Protein 1
Amino acid sequence: MAQSIFKCISCFKEYDIEEIQYRCDCGDLLEVMHDLESAIPNPQSYKKSLDSGMAKIAFNRYKSILFPSLPDSSIITLSEGNTPLYDVTHSFPQFNSIKLKHEGMNPTLSFKDRGMVSGVSWANHLGCEKVICASTGDTSAAMAAYAGATPNMKGIVLLPKGKISPEQLAQPISFGALTVGVETDFDGCMKLVQQLIEKHNMYLLNSMNSVRIEGQKAISIETLHQLNWKVPDWFIIPVGNAGNISALGKGLRELYELGIIDKLPRLAGIQTEGASPLYKSFQNGYLELIPQKAKPTKASAIQIGNPVSYKKSVRELIHFKGIVEVVSEMEIMDWKAQIDRLGISICPNSAVAVAGAMKLNRNGIIKENEDVVVILTAHGSKFSNTSVEYHKSSVNQFANQTLSITPNLETLENALNL
Ligand code: F0G
């Protein structure tokens, strides 16, 4: 079986993968490194083998690049992956092509399932009985589900009280996790959970745990596979804690290093105006991260002021000639309405990325001859209140107001203009 190790992203110190380790002794983040050349000696036959493995669940299909050293017998899956890549170019002819990779079509309705299949499977392999995370709602839902699917594993989730949607709150509760509302924001929960795991024997499943990142690489790998390995010019992704953009970059880098793809796309990370620490750092030439108090936003899953994976994300942004942009609350909800209207139900966090793609196109940064893939991170059904509120008000440009009538045929005919 191919070997994997943890390696510090700053000082390159290496650690045994079988040890529980989140940060290097120097304090920086670790990443998982695999002996991919042994796992995939021949890129051409690898591509062929992937096509014949289409019936498999996504994690198993891509396992030799995602996490070759994870034993098959430890895998906990809920059949995540195989998510649709919608071509919506017909509605947006200002792009050469624009496709939406809908990660909201995963079992717990967000991309977090991709990372939990590796994170919880690894916890299962290590024999961990308690897994824990801080969350803005989606990590907690996914972790609780995968812990629920594992024999002898208890999930514990820390949530910023009153700051997540009712649907997101219902998920960890129903999946049997111990659910703790903390009177703080996400950054406060994240700080608390890091203090807790210093003292107690619990396995942390935030994306600070680099094992999670390995599963999330499947998003870019599966997208490229769906595109028959034709690399788009851009990947656009919303950014909160900055784990997903780091995973996107790592997956693409590994595909390129293996010779499976022959070109690198550019990356665009998109944030909200009120929660934009990465954007501010980008404007500053990535000199430093200045943590901020993130302001409330409809995109509540990315209301984060101190992204844990900041350094990893900057490394990927530089490698992929990336840029960072921000969008307003109105842009988020107007673009959400326009994508929902196509029958593709998206959450406000995903709409941040769509709005970003549109803004970059309007500003001439994404050219009209370029191919774009936007990563949609969660399903609209997780945030139904935001849709109901938006469509109530005629002030909103794309509102589809409901009619309310008494049960009378004539009234109905009048209401329908018949
Ligand atoms: N979109 C959604 C729907 C999310 O839930 C998150 C993060 C992101 C985008 C941003 O991804 O943090 O890797 O940059 N949600 C985390 C959570 C923070 O706890 O569910 P990121």
Note: The two ends are 70 Å apart (CA to CA).
Protein 2
Amino acid sequence: MKNKEHQKRIAAIHDLSGFGKCSLTVALPILSAAGIETCALPTAVLSTHTGGISGYTYRDLTADMRPFIQHWKSLNIKFDAIYSGFLGSFEQLEIVKEFFDTFKTKDNLILVDPVMADNGELYRIFKPEFAQGMRSLCKKADIIVPNLTEAALLLNEPYHPGPYTQAYIENILKKLSRLGPEKVVLTGVYLKEEELGAATYDYKTGIIEFVLTQKIPGYYHGTGDIFASALLSALLNNFSLNEAAQIAVNFTADSIRRTYKAKTDYRFGVNFEQCIPDFLKELKLV
Ligand code: PXL
């Protein structure tokens, strides 16, 4: 077991969808299990996520976001990382930029998951212009974690379904880094039909690495949030970018495998909870 002198603390800026396992209901348990104090700035409260479920409630919390910043600032709270995900409006994007400006230090990490699309399509809740706003938020990030659909939107390019060539992925990674973030982790990457995973790029070292595993059939909601939360957990436990991506791919794929076997509705999220013990072993925390 690792010796942990200083407990790391992060701010997680996402919505709270009561049912369906995504955003805060995924980020909080995963990062907390990884030993990281996770402070939540909820951007909205929904009865369920918006992915394929109709009739959800949506309580927008934009009006509370600046007062959260002021209060946390008055308490002089310091964060080792700031992690943003699903954001509902341009105004929320602006407030999150203010959050970054307020709490950025010379050595903390800003991770932006530009949640807005999957499978070649923008989530129905967003207008096409939202991608531009998300691009401007990504400029301020140290690390971004888009899927290939989000990458295409951020780069204002057409989306291509895979399999991809290595050269295509490398080019996308470099172009995304040119938007601002030093590190990019691209998800939904596959070079052959039967595999799926991620590719990492670190501008500083120029190193590009692929982390691929066997694809499990089907589509599973909320896996991007599980991946990004696991990636950040590993980075804050001092794993390298590529090791962190490997840990996040393993945890996400394990969660999907369990869900595939259980044959639950894809909209209800994946069983990541029962994969947490193995995840903690990979993090060398137990
Ligand atoms: O998993 C991304 C996500 C987060 N939050 C809400 C969503 C989605 C994706 O559909 O609807 C509210």
Note: The CA atoms of residues 220 and 246 lie 19 Å apart.
Protein 3
Amino acid sequence: MSPPLSSLGEFGLVALFERAAQARHPATRVGIGDDCAVLDLGGLERVLLTTDLLLERVHFEAAWLSAEDLGHKSMAVNLSDVAAMGGEAVAALLALGLPPGLEVAWVEGLRDGLVGCARAYGLELVGGDTVSAPGGAVVCLTVLGRAPADEVVLRSGGQPGDRVLATGPLGDSAAGLHLLRGGGAGLAPEDRAALLLAHRRPEPQLALGRELARRRLAHAMIDVSDGLVQDLGHICERSGLGAELDADGLPLSAAARRLAALEGLDARDWALSGGEDYRLLFCVPGGLAAEAERVCRGLGLEAAELGRLGAGRGVRVRRDGQVSAPADQGFDHFGPRGAR
Ligand code: ADP
Ligand code: MG
């Protein structure tokens, strides 16, 4: 009997397709395995292509996320992948599966969130598809972007000795999810509002990604969608390197720290393996780290230096004086936290 998908995990499953997709079209510069595919259609620019699927009950509970938040979020998570390549977003296609009993007002909310986010980041909804989906809402968005050919930043470009930087705060989205699951009784209303906003309304860091790429400050880059450990792990794997992360240097918000204290939890876990922060994680040659930090500050963002790329394989975390390879590698759709 063929083993179940859960034995492969999400990444083993993607690898099934990656291995089969080897007959490359001459336009394919980067195929499966980065935040966007990179295509060469001629000229000095590269085309960036990415898609993300959000499913009711897997990615969102209708009661936790308004339709407008969901529209915003589905656009934002795609734009975050374009940001991670150093690109600019151009156009989006929206594929919708909707239960026939859904209220029109819900779809109008979804539209407003989606189109509002697109407008804020300068791209346009240019098409899509709509079908009936009795089992629950399905929102699949595909975004096309572009970047100058010599400025595209891949996961695979990391060099030994590169400083690993990330914009913060990290972990707020997972802290917000903790609140939605019923935690956080007694948390101050302004902390609650800030953490829920981080979960519901992530903002893609397109301006930062573009600026780091234009100034050639990043050897490698990824957006933090599945937790810092897992996402840095992707850079390590694609760059053939290892990394050490300093958990004491994590950019945690005061609100997340206060929630963790209240619950007897460690906010560092939300940053390391929580996911859905949609901040950028990038690897900068040692001599350029100060300039990269200046670029972040110029855009009103704070960058934290979290460690270095080096020899070896995988991500080790230095925490309270101990170095270890973390057991919780972040979100896996076919792993224990993903299966529902
Ligand atoms: P991200 O979190 O940046 O959206 P994912 O972890 O979802 O990236 O995907 C990792 C890589 O695998 C990406 O390059 C993505 O395009 C590719 N991928 C995911 N699912 C499939 C699939 N079913 N077929 C082909 N490629 C896939
Ligand atoms: Mg990504």
Note: Residues 35, 81, 84, 222-223, 225 surround magnesium ion (ligand 2) (CB under 6 Å).
Protein 4
Amino acid sequence: MQIDIITVVPGLLEGPFSHSILKRAEEKGLAKVNVHNLRDYAIGKHKQVDDYAFGGGAGMVMMVEPVARCIEALKSQRDYDEIIYMTPDGETLDQQMANSLSLKGNLMILCGHYKGVDERIRQKYITKEISIGDFVLSGGELAAAIVADAVIRLIPGVLNDETSALSDSFQDGLLAPPIYTRPAEYEGMKVPEILLSGHNEKIANWRFEESVRRTKERRPDLLEGTDFE
Ligand code: ADE
């Protein structure tokens, strides 16, 4: 999977993809993130990418032409399953969306900046609009990094332990159970006996019950309409 991200602040995306799991995904040839500077597609000697909003009001708007040129240039190089726009008025990201995006071929992600992009770009090119939550960031870059991270780690082969993504919170509609590592006792606080028992089936049952308990306590909304309500 190739993820092409279009931004006016490429520096914001330099760090997240050169470490840990995302770096390994690239080294294994499973996923690659390419960051594109919108300014490279600007028109005129001032390299302008934003302009005042028609009708007035505070804040600049990302111009149609540079964004369209950039999208067209990328589309001429490869096919995309989705052209995504990061915006607070998009569909809220959740694990189900991450799962379904992880099954796609290539993704393009346009990061909104300033007041956002000219509506005509959304009409002509965008196939999916994603928000990472009901709050406003100063741009879509950090949100795009979050989407890319959530998606790439789900691509088969990216995580070493194939089962580890399956035991994540939300993956089965429940929050993850408590986890422990050595030492077995810390300042009088003991790891639950069952986890030291070596009895795999009992451990699996305990983890499941703890998941349900934790979900009931913290996110009862996730259990609505299920047997655990
Ligand atoms: N850009 C600004 N705020 C955002 C949000 N909450 N989600 C996605 N993109 C954004």
Note: Residues 86-88, 112, 131-133, 135-137, 140, 143 surround adenine (CB under 6 Å).
